[in-house]
Prior knowledge:
It is a single chain. The chain is 43% helix and 18% strand. The chain contains twelve helices and twelve strands. A four-stranded mixed beta sheet has the order 2-1-3-4. Strands 8-7-9-10 form a four-stranded mixed beta sheet, with helices on both faces. Strands 5-6 form a two-stranded antiparallel sheet. The protein has two domains: 4-155, Glutaredoxin, CATH 3.40.30; 162-306, Glutaredoxin (3-Layer(aba) Sandwich), CATH 3.40.30. By secondary structure, the chain is of the alpha+beta class.
Amino acid sequence: MMSVALVLCVGLPRSLLADQIKAPPATAPVYDESANATQDVAVAVRRAGFENQRVLLDIGGNWCHWCTLLHNLFEENQDIKTLLRSEYQVVNVDIGNGTDKNADLLAGYGIKPISYPYLAILGPDNKLVVQQETGALEAGPAHDPQKVMAFLNQWKASPLDAQKVLSDSLADAGAHGKRVFLHLGAPWCGWCHKLEDVLYQPAVADAISADFVLTKIDTDRMTGAAEVVKKYQTSGGIPWYAIVTPDGKVVSTSDLTPGNNIGFPTEPAEIDHVMHMFTDGHKNMTDDQIAAVRDAFTKAAAAVKATMH
């Protein structure tokens, strides 16, 4: 009698038994069986909204050879890896050993897996965009990189125009008595992600939004980004950021001294500089919110330093 796990893992060529396809082991389990998938998806959707990305749900279990095969393709094919990093927030959703684990989460989006691995894409509005069984993405005993790339490219978000994004943010700021926190970044920039990991924390984002319209210009993915960079950036490197008034005047930047962009702040003086950017002339952030922002930056800087020793 076939096991439940074997019955469910039907993403293989139909002429082969699942135990004839042996995926090379992943460096770690593909699916974190202790993860809170509902929480992980919520975080990914929130971040996708800031980044003009979509959320890719990779649904399966650690018992599934084809799930490991797809995961390895995601990790080892550089074109696919780059596309995922640029265009998607990826969440691995564990369905357990053929049980109904996370079934309510999937059902809430109308996702109905028929085999594993199974893919679903959500928009930043937290609604299902498309779902896809992965048998159609196979070629023989493996997933076809070209088919996977075509699927991911078909459903990625349309690029935004950088000047329109900034113009809309400046108008929004003017209408609500705020200023714009403008930051420049790119998907390949690890320090940009560290900054965004702080900025996108709910408590930090809520605090900043009391006085600022948080606006990212993606220097790789937005059209017309080069013109915005040329107009505003006063030193090299990313992340780079500035406080801008609704009429387009730059009030302060991440340049600690002229031409010296601090990027992600790790030193006390750099954190002080960032906090001054947020608090000089602020109107609405409370003392508790200001303390929460400083605490988030301080903890993130400590975590970075801990990896350097």
